Amino acid sequence: QKEVEQDPGPLSVPEGAIVSLNCTYSNSAFQYFMWYRQYSRKGPELLMYTYSSGNKEDGRFTAQVDKSSKYISLFIRDSQPSDSATYLCAMSPYNAGNNRKLIWGLGTSLAVNP
Amino acid sequence: GAGVSQTPSNKVTEKGKYVELRCDPISGHTALYWYRQSLGQGPEFLIYFQGTGAADDSGLPNDRFFAVRPEGSVSTLKIQRTERGDSAVYLCASSLNFAGGPGELFFGEGSRLTVL
To answer: Which of B17, B24, B86, B100 could make a disulfide contact with B5, Cβ separation 3.0–4.6 Å?
Structure first.
């Protein structure tokens, strides 16, 4: 079993829809949870960064972390064609010493159709 | 430059050849990372530098892979005796040094390596 599981999709939605993306994980030591967006042939770019459990909102994006269920989600409201990309979740345990590596999901491919 | 710069953007080589991939991080970023991303996969950690030293090289798959960052800025990933399985996009990222947590990673566009 992988440490981080993410459904690769593809997910196709009409413009304006609410999109729900999620990841599950097995390592209870994970404390930092991130969502990155990756356009084709580009590097990932950070969308949301959360520490421990709870919700965080930034514009049309909301990230949720449920550590008791080992489940994280990203919601996109009023989705736009420009949101079409691959969304990757990434996680890291508490930064003790030099442990900076991120563990990534496979990424979910999203297409928002005009 | 404003972002992380990686060269070459594309590299095609033959099995058994030696390859160098270069990364120029954002100015002032002390932390530098190399990741490898295969088609349909998430990035896979290779190595992390803090300044000039490799703080964590646990992700390097074998001794054919080596990376340096001699002056604490530009880094080079070196792959000896390339194999077809090394074909992937090699991503470099840099970040500021935070006291806790990994911080935000800024990625380059990657070097796409194809081994024939």
So the answer is: B24
CA dist B2 and B26 (Å) reads: 7
What is the Cα A81 distance to its own chain's centre? 18
Q: Which two tokens stand for residue A65?
A: 């972390």
Beta-carbon contacts of residue A97 (< 8 Å; ≥ 6 apart): none
Q: Looking at CA atoms only, how far is residue A3 from chain B in angstroms?
A: 12
The residues near B99 (Cβ < 8 Å, ≥ 6 apart) are none
A95 with B91: Cβ contact below 8 A = no
B44-50 and B53-56: which strand pairing?
antiparallel
Q: Which two tokens stand for residue A69?
A: 């269920």
| Of the partner residues A51, A88, A101, the one whose CB lies closest to the CB of residue B59 | A101
Query: Is some CB atom of chain B closer than 8 A to the CB atom of A98?
Result: yes
Please name which of B97, B35, B106, B32 lies closest in space to residue A34, comparing C-alpha atoms.
B106
pLDDT tens-digit readout, B54-100: 888 999 999 999 999 999 899 999 999 999 999 999 999 999 876 66
The answer to whether A68 contacts chain B (CB < 8 Å) is no
Q: Are A43 and B4 in contact (CB under 8 A)?
A: yes
Angle at A28 between CA A27 and CA A33, to 5 degrees: 80
Q: State the pLDDT at residue A98.
A: 60
CB contacts < 8 Å between A and B, how many?
71
Q: What distance in Å separates the CA atoms of residue B60 and residue B43, rounded to the nearest whole number?
A: 13
